[in-house]
Amino acid sequence: MSPEEKPVKQPVNEGVSEEQDVLRHLANDSTAPDNMATSIEGLPTPKASSSLKKRLIALIIAIVALIVGMGVLVYYLVQPVKISDRDADTTAQRKDTAKPKADTTLTAAGLVKDLKLSVGGEDVIDATTPKIKPDGYGFYVNIYREKNSYGTKVVGSKQQVDTQRALLRTRLKQKGFTETVYQESSDDANFAADYKTKNVACLVSGFTPLNTSGVDANKYEVTLGCADISVYQSVAKKANLFAQAYASESKQDIATMSFSTPTVTKSSVAGYSRAEIAISGAEYSAVGGFAGLFYQTPDTLWHFFVGTQNILLCSQYNTPDIKKAYVGEKCMSSDGQQESTVSL
């Protein structure tokens, strides 16, 4: 530039900011990006503004998503480890296999026959069975009067009996029976435990043989007695009316008492009947059982009369209904010396 030449001053638009002026030059610059095109007033076009908003929104969404994702990750990291459904199923299967499942086709007769062979036992007629509370009833049942129990026993030295008792217990548990031990001692052969499945109930019992000279070393004994649960259900159904009458009139709690099959006899007086049923505590070692005497009146209701272990005095038949139900039954005179009968 020569000394004579002076720089030409570019006109400045009043009221236009420096930033707007820059944008104007960028608009005239062919190298400027397309998205930076400006309006004739020097302001960004709607196209540029919209693009900027979209980028800001996208950035905000990304930041929010990152925060949420990190929160979810932290949540799962601090949670306790849970067993998956598949692992839970596997655990349940292991528990099931840990305890043998009971054979639902098992019967008392078949079970005793099998175990008799295992221990080399002998048959027992009317074997003692456990007292159990059948489903649906509020009392225990004793089936000692039934002919549907099966049993076997082993008699011998204490060592022989201990060995066979252990074998019986093992075999029963292997077949899925639940064991409840009432009495056990390492010093003698006294033992009592019941075993129960859905179909069968059993009692394993043993005792130390005593005589006037002491222990008879070759007559230790262990006995197995079993019955089908269906037998208990049948007896409970027959005994239910008497159990309820006993509870109502004696004010006793029957939840811990056992009842057996009632023996019912019609009276010579029309509309009247009498019944006898064995009643005792439900525990294995319960003592003090008695015969429960009942009578039925013409309205078909059963009433509890008395519990006894002996022949009653004639004076105890002291109401017209009781006399009509028991007329002709044996009774004792007031002094207990002479036998007589109930009369109207």
Quick recap of the structure?
Helices cover 34% and strands 24% of the residues.
Task: Give the tally of structural domains.
Answer: 3
Low-confidence stretches: 1-16, 29-43, 81-97
N→C terminal distance: 159 Å
Question: What is the strand content?
Answer: 15-25%
Helical element count? 7
Shape: flat
Mean pLDDT: 80
Order of helices and strands: HHHHEEEHEEEEEEHEEEEEHEE
> In percent, how helical is the residue content?
25-40%
Largest sheet: spatial strand order? 1-3-9-6-5-4
Q: Given the helix and strand composition, which structural class is it? A: alpha+beta
Walk me through what this model shows.
The chain has a 6-stranded antiparallel beta sheet. It has 3 domains: about 20-75; about 110-230, no CATH class; about 260-340, no CATH class. By secondary structure, it is an alpha+beta fold. It has helices spanning about 20-30, 45-80, 85-100, 110-120, 160-175, 230-250, 320-325, and strands at about 120-125, 140, 150-155, 180-185, 190-195, 200-205, 210, 215, 220-230, 255-260, 265, 275-280, 290-295, 300-310, 330, 340. Helices cover about 35% and strands about 25% of the residues. A hairpin with a 6-residue loop joins strand 4 and strand 5. It has 7 helices and 16 strands. The radius of gyration is 47 Å and the shape is flat.
